[in-house]
């Protein structure tokens, strides 16, 4: 009988994801409680608006990326790869779309495995070879398999609620106090409420980004399991990043002669990385190299 | 007995330690990685300012009187940008590495230590998918005290390199050899005499 490829467990990654999700749950729980205490009406309106936005956005993703669903006749190679990979992953075959953009990129969408689609840009098709393209598709298919679109939608849901609430609050801080509350307290209450939504957005944003980075690592891992070619994905990632730039072209002999002026660039964990939804290419490549080594043992 | 070895090469190594690590891994290079030494190692030395090609060559020859000529065969050449190359020949990688280690000592004793740019270990690797022999290099750079991979592709005047292969090389040997992981340090040397 046919067995879908098992992705294997990365317990450390799972633990980290769990802790991040727990943190998000706690943060959102406290936030909802405070918001409810403050103003059930504001909260309800914000919730309704965001729910409507979300149910529409699902259908709008493909359109906003100018992606067009293509048939197997139009893109036979792409369809064949998606066919094989989704079968290996044990999920229904997603729709295949091509987005007419010169920026190389790929994405997966859909609120469930049945409604999923994978899309690639024409820029991506132009610069990757077959192995690399397969690896990128495998990455997107493992996002679908592990229901990442849904997880990330839920994870960022309350973040958008907080953003909507804070714009309400800004509005009422400017025009507020009309008729209803004329006491001196109203101003400071609004300031505290604004502060709470602000904190939720910062901390929540960081946690959502962290979770997203973990899910990227996990999709890289899934792709490696599906294709058995982690280095193909590594090479695709580097090509996308244009990492040829980070490999020096200058001859070592010339470098050495200006050694005295050589200043090491300070590299550290920047603030940008905390809010970034994807891990750095260097980190992803490093992990993929590890998977390649592990697989070499099994070959 | 562990199934998987957890040992890890130190990230940075001094010249003698790095040469010892290279020599100590000759078996691995041949058996696991399918790479064989070309029977050469080159030590690259920068000229001091305003030095002519013949002066550089003479200076290196003078310093190398400290080397045991009966044990090691080597030639000194100067390239078009004025850098000196001491090319040592031996069929066995451990002896090449040992010779390079000794050469480091000799240059340090002659006060040229600061000017040693790299030790270059060329290897042959048969690329089964492209059906051809590929020359690959491991460069030890004293500046960063680590080895970096380098694979030129095609004509050196085109200055193209096979970065995918370099990444694989680094991943395959990083547990055994002190390698630099920052690709920004993987400087090429175009048109080497080895």
Please report which band the strand proportion of chain B falls in: under 5%, 5-15%, 15-25%, 25-35%, 35-45% or over 45%: 25-35%
Gross morphology of chain A is: globular
Distance between the termini of chain B: 41 Å
Number of strands of chain A: 4
Could you give a short account of the major beta sheet of chain A?
A: 4 strands, mixed
Q: Any low-confidence stretches of chain B, pLDDT <50, length ≥5?
A: 1-7
Protein model, in words:
The complex is a heterodimer of chains A (299) and B (194). With 299 residues, chain A is mainly alpha-helical. Helices cover 67% and strands 6% of the residues of chain A. Chain A is built from eleven helices and four strands; from the N terminus they run ααβαβββαααααααα. Chain A has helices spanning 11-38, 40-64, 76-89, 122-127, 130-145, 148-175, 185-227, 230-241, 252-257, 271-274, 281-298; strands at residues 67-69, 95-99, 106-109, 117-121. In chain A, helix 1 runs parallel beside helix 6, helix 5 packs across helix 7 (185-227) and helix 7 runs parallel beside helix 11 (281-298). Chain B is globular, with a radius of gyration of 17 Å. Chain B contains five helices and nine strands; from the N terminus they run ααββαββαβββββα. In chain B, helix 1 packs antiparallel against helix 4. Chain B has helices spanning 15-24, 26-31, 53-63, 93-109, 163-173, and strands at residues 35-37, 40-45, 73-78, 84-89, 116-127, 132-141, 146-150, 152-153, 160-161. In chain B, the strands form two sheets. In chain B, strands 1, 2, 3, 4, 5, 6 and 7 form a seven-stranded antiparallel beta sheet that branches. In chain B, strand 5 (116-127) and strand 6 form a beta hairpin. The relative contact order of chain B is 0.21. The longest helix of chain B has 17 residues, at 93-109. The model of chain B is unreliable at 1-7 (pLDDT under 50). Chain B has 194 residues and is of the alpha+beta class. Chain A binds chain B through residues 231, 234-235, 238, 243-244, 246-253, 255-257, 259, 282, 285-286, 289, 292-293, 297, and chain B through 4, 44, 46, 81, 83, 117-118, 139, 141, 143, 159, 161, 163-164, 166-168, 170-172, 181, 183-190.
């Amino acid at each position: 009988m046919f067995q879908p490829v098992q992705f294997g467990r990365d317990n450390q990654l799972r633990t980290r994801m769990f802790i991040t999700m727990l943190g998000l749950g706690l943060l959102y729980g406290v936030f909802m409680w405070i918001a409810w205490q403050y103003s059930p009406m504001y909260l309800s309106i914000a919730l309704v608006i965001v729910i409507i936005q979300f149910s529409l956005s699902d259908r709008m993703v493909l359109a906003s990326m100018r992606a067009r669903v293509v048939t197997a006749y139009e893109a036979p190679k792409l369809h064949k790869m998606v066919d094989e990979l989704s079968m290996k992953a044990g999920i229904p075959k997603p729709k295949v779309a091509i987005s007419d953009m010169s920026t190389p990129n790929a994405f997966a969408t859909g609120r469930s495995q049945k409604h999923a689609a994978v899309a690639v840009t024409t820029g991506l098709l132009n610069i990757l070879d077959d192995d690399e393209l397969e690896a990128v598709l495998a990455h997107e298919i493992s996002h679908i398999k592990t229901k990442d679109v849904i997880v990330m939608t839920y994870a960022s849901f309350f973040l958008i609620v907080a953003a909507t609430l804070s714009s309400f609050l800004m509005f009422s801080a400017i025009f507020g106090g009309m008729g209803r509350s004329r006491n001196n307290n109203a101003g400071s209450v609004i300031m505290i409420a604004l502060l709470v939504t602000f904190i939720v957005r910062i901390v929540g944003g960081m946690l959502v980004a962290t979770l997203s980075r973990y899910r990227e690592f996990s999709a890289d891992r899934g792709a490696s399991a599906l294709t058995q070619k982690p280095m193909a994905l590594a090479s695709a990632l580097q090509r996308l990043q244009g990492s040829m730039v980070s490999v020096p072209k200058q001859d070592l002999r010339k470098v050495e002669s200006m050694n005295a002026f050589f200043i090491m660039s300070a590299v550290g964990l920047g603030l940008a990385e905390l809010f970034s939804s994807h891990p750095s290419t260097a980190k992803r490549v490093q992990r993929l190299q590890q998977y390649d080594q592990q697989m070499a043992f099994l070959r | 007995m562990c199934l998987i070895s957890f040992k890890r090469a130190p990230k940075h190594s001094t010249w003698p330690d790095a040469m010892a690590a290279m020599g100590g891994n000759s078996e691995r290079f041949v058996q696991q990685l399918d790479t064989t030494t070309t029977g050469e190692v080159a030590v690259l030395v920068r000229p001091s300012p305003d030095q002519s090609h013949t002066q550089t060559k003479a200076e290196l020859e003078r310093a190398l009187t400290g080397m045991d000529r009966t044990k090691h065969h080597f030639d000194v050449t100067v390239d078009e940008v004025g850098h000196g190359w001491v090319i040592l020949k031996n069929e066995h990688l451990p002896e090449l590495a040992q010779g390079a280690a000794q050469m480091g000592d000799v240059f340090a004793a002659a006060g040229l230590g600061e000017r040693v740019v790299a030790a270059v270990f060329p290897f042959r690797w048969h690329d089964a998918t492209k059906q051809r022999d590929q020359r690959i290099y491991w460069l030890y750079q004293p500046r960063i005290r680590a080895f970096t991979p380098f694979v030129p592709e095609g004509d050196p005047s085109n200055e193209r390199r096979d970065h995918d292969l370099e990444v694989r090389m680094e991943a395959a040997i990083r547990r055994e050899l002190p390698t630099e992981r920052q690709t920004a340090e993987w400087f090429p040397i175009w048109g080497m005499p080895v």
